[in-house]
Amino acid sequence: MQHTIRNLDTLEKAYDPSGFRDMGHQLIDLLSDYLEKTQKDKDYPVLPYKDPEEELLFWKQDFSSDSGVMDVFKNIIEHSIHVHHPRYIGHQVAVPALISTLAGLMSDLLNNGTGVYEMGMAANAIEKIVTDLVAKKLGYTDEASGFITSGGTLANLTALLAARKAKAPSPIWEHGNQEKLAVMVSEEAHYCIDRAARILGFGSDGIIKVPVDKDFKIDVEVLDKYFNKATSQGFHVIAIIGCACSTATGSYDDLNILADFAEQNKVWFHVDGAHGGGVVFSEKYKYLTNGIERADSVVIDFHKMLMTPSLNTALIFKKAENAYQTFVQKAQYLWDSQDTQEWYNSGKRTFECTKSMMSIKVYAVLKTYGEEIFEKNVDHLYDMAAFFAKTIKQRSYFELAMNPQANIVNFRYIYGDTNINTLNNEIHQKLIRSGKFYIVQTTIGEERYLRTTIMNPLTQKEDLIALLDEIESIGNDFIRL
After folding, report:
1. Nearest 5°: phi and psi at 314?
2. Which candidate, 476, 471, 477, places its Cα nearest to that of 451?
3. Which long-range contacts (CB under 8 A, 24 or more apart) does 474-481 make?
4. Contact present, 201 and 257 (Cβ < 8 Å)
5. pLDDT 10s digit of each residue in the chain, 481 long?
6. Is the dihedral of CA 218, 223, 225, 226 positive or negative?
């Protein structure tokens, strides 16, 4: 009996509003102090790097200790990468606007799933407002409709499911694959496109990877050749996919030419704008996506350049009915009719039923700052990339892979006859372990390059100059050895 009472006391504490208020104040103070230090102290490490086994041992010891939850929160901060640091210039992860993180707290606390209307009334209505705004920015008409889902990978898979539903000769949802289906995509496309096609059962041969030109855009001169070869081999091409932009190089495909190709060959036209589609909010850079309004479907990540925590992705269809036809099936305990186009029951259109209140994070940013905040962020990130590329070209020990179109800049340190790949790999490792900067690497062709993605609106010109100075110092030390 005493054991039962003690468990009840513990349960009561877990839901005690006054205790939540106290812990909440402490946590907000902790995070605010952390943000101030991260943004102002350039000597504060971007990444306090530890080897994997050392890190695991630390947390095993922490788990068995009697440390309080605030100590745990402090340790999590000190053992994590700091994306709000101006010298975080690595992966394509948003630096969240702080108001969006507070909306995330509300989402977690309310825990409203949005697959069924009554479980997520506010979030479903807000989601329609947000996705309608994106559709308008894309240049779509009122016929368009979309929803938010958990990441670009899931969104691209869902878009290809819609393409298969619309363009496959046989009803696959009912009878399975009856024909050899294929999609066409740039060889520089994100790996999730390849993965989605394999999940759909297309196999390696059904993923037609079209070569890129010198600017790493899909080579539009060979589209007919690759299409005709596929059809001669018995494939039914259902879709062509444009990159806006590619992940490794930040190159934007010519979407108008791809739209022409799709119309001529009666295939679905999908644009993976997970990273670079956010430029539709920028008057200065939206030209990069000219033709996107002709796509049948478009993916844009809010958790890339639109200042929202991961994962948070819009999938917009030019025609609403395509969104609803993708998952036509019965689920009587959820809704009465599958055929009705009900925007407020998002489970009809997505993989997810218990979907979190993702829309409120975007909505909070828009309500607080207006959509111009997205424009300002995109413009700053792309402007900084242009400055960085120009600065790299002015230094004799550096080589730029290509002039960037986006906020992705690939470059490398070069010196005499030194093995360039080995040299840059050594530079990258030392840079990461120093904690002074965070950048990544990529392979373009057969060559290794240092890769930066400028994601932080707090990153300034002096941070980028300091990065080149540090790389040059590490490179010189390595050569002297």
Report:
1. -95, 135
2. 471
3. 474/426, 474/427, 474/430, 474/431, 475/397, 475/413, 475/415, 475/423, 475/427, 478/423, 478/426, 478/427, 479/415, 479/416, 479/418, 479/423
4. no
5. 344 444 568 888 899 999 999 999 999 999 999 999 999 998 999 999 999 999 999 999 999 999 999 999 999 999 999 999 999 999 999 999 999 999 999 999 999 988 888 889 999 999 999 999 999 999 999 999 999 999 999 999 999 999 999 998 888 877 777 889 999 999 988 888 888 888 888 888 899 999 999 999 999 999 999 999 999 999 999 999 999 999 889 999 999 999 999 999 999 999 999 999 999 999 999 999 999 999 999 999 999 999 999 999 999 999 999 988 777 544 444 445 555 678 888 877 888 888 899 999 999 999 999 999 999 999 999 999 999 999 999 999 999 999 999 999 999 999 877 789 989 999 999 999 999 999 999 988 888 999 999 999 999 999 999 999 999 999 888 877 6
6. positive
Both structure tokens of 72 = 């745990």
* Euclidean distance between CA atoms 418 and 420, whole angstroms: 6
Model pTM above 0.90: yes
Amino acid identity for residue 3 in this structure = H
Q: Which two tokens stand for residue 163?
A: 């393409």
Render the burial of 177-200: b for 16+ CB within 10 Å, e for the rest: eeebbbbbbbebbbebbbebbeeb
Q: What distance in Å separates the CA atoms of residue 92 and residue 135, rounded to the nearest whole number?
A: 23
Amino acid making up residue 167: K
Sheet containing 440-444: give its strands across: 398-400, 408-413, 447-453, 440-444
The 3 state secondary structure assigned to 445-470 is CCEEEEEEECCCCCCCHHHHHHHHHH
CB-neighbour burial class of residue 418 (10 A; exposed 0-12, middle 13-18, buried 19+): middle
Answer yes or no: are the C-beta atoms of 264 and 300 closer than 8 Å. no
- Give me the residues paired with residue 270 across strands: 241, 297
Distance CA 144, CA 146 (A): 7
